[in-house]
Design a protein that fits this description.
Elements (H helix, E strand, L loop, with lengths): L4 H5 L4 H14 L5 E2 L11 H13 L11 H15 L8 E4 L1 H13 L5 E5 L5 H8 L3 E5 L10 H6 L5 E7 L11 H14 L2 E5 L28 E6 L12 E4 L2 H14 L5 H12 L3 H22 L14 E2 L10 H12 L1 E2 L1 E2 L9 E4 L4 H15 L6 E4 L2 E4 L4
Parallel strand pairs: 1-10, 3-4, 3-5, 5-6, 6-7
Antiparallel strand pairs: 2-8, 7-8, 9-12, 11-12, 13-14
Amino acid sequence: MNLSLIARTIHESATLKLNQTAAQLRERGEPVIHLGGGEPKSKAPIDAIVACTGVLNTGDVKYTPSDGIPALKKAIIRYTEEHYGRGVQPKNVIASSGAKQAIMVLLHAIVDPKDEVVFPAPYWVSYPEMVKLAGGVPVAVKAEDGSFCPTLEEMEAAMGSGTRAVILNSPNNPSGVMYTPEFIAGMVEMCERRDVWLVMDDTYNRLVFDGRAPVNCYEFTRADMESSKLVVINCVSKMYAMTGFRIGWAVGAAEVIQAMGVIQGQQTSSPATPSQWAAVGALNGVQTSIEALRLTLENNRNILMDHFRAFPGVKVARPEGAFYSFPDFGAYMKDSQKLSEFLLEKVRVVTVPGREFGMEGHLRISFCGAAKEVTEGIERIRWALDPSSPNELYLGDRRLVRDWL
């Protein structure tokens, strides 16, 4: 078929593909453990459900402004003031169908063909493809020391005359690492000095561990809102466990937000009306669910690290936030795609290959499920890889004997 160049070059989302594979295996009755997922297992807040069903019960569910209903914008403004100490106006806010659409619409608004968009590796799997969809060129920056955060010097060395934007995601998906205040301050200064857009993907910024506080990028900017090229992205998906509602937002200068609204209006019109009201309920309602989720994730992180400490040959950085770890399994298999496929086939554990995040030899391991799933999943992985583990494993009623090492 005569498909477009974009259709032939954009890759399928690895995480969505794995979700589909896991669902198919479960439908067949397979004892699958999904450690590749990106959504909390907790329920959406009751305030979100009440607000959503309230508008549904009226039966009057119509179009809304393309950039979001006034009540949602007002809730986002209050959220921005409370958590970022930044006063903004409705013209500085756009609500989208998830943080992914907010980023995508923003890239369409600021990136011209062949412009470069720079981001550290490891990176969220969608960044390179989203940049390419906008006509740009993705530039991933790997730290020379093998860590999950390049230095400021390494970031600036990757930036040239064609650099249009930088994307930072902290806490980071897939590593769980938080960029330091010094690094973010340096990136804000660097982007302002070079007149480059800085996109802060703060999707996980309230899910941080060990008494840390989220890093507020606005503390380091000298520009006012209307002259700033700093855009902050957020959503209700992760911190409120509302992935299926698909509501995210962007906060930035009125000029870029207006351009995003025009583009979004031609793409999808507005986000779904019931979902917008659900987000209003979540943002304005009781906030205890976020802390409950954060504590659960921190406990799961601790359990995960205990198991990895007993796993010979695996190197793993301690996640500081979000709900992912990014261990290095290179001592067992360098090809992360083959390793991920091997673990799914042999022990029915879903992981995401590190190559999708820009670093080979690693796997993304999620700990947002039940603690029991985390424990059993790592035990299955160790059984499949570590020759010193017992020779037998039971998957439900099925007895496995290791015969492939």
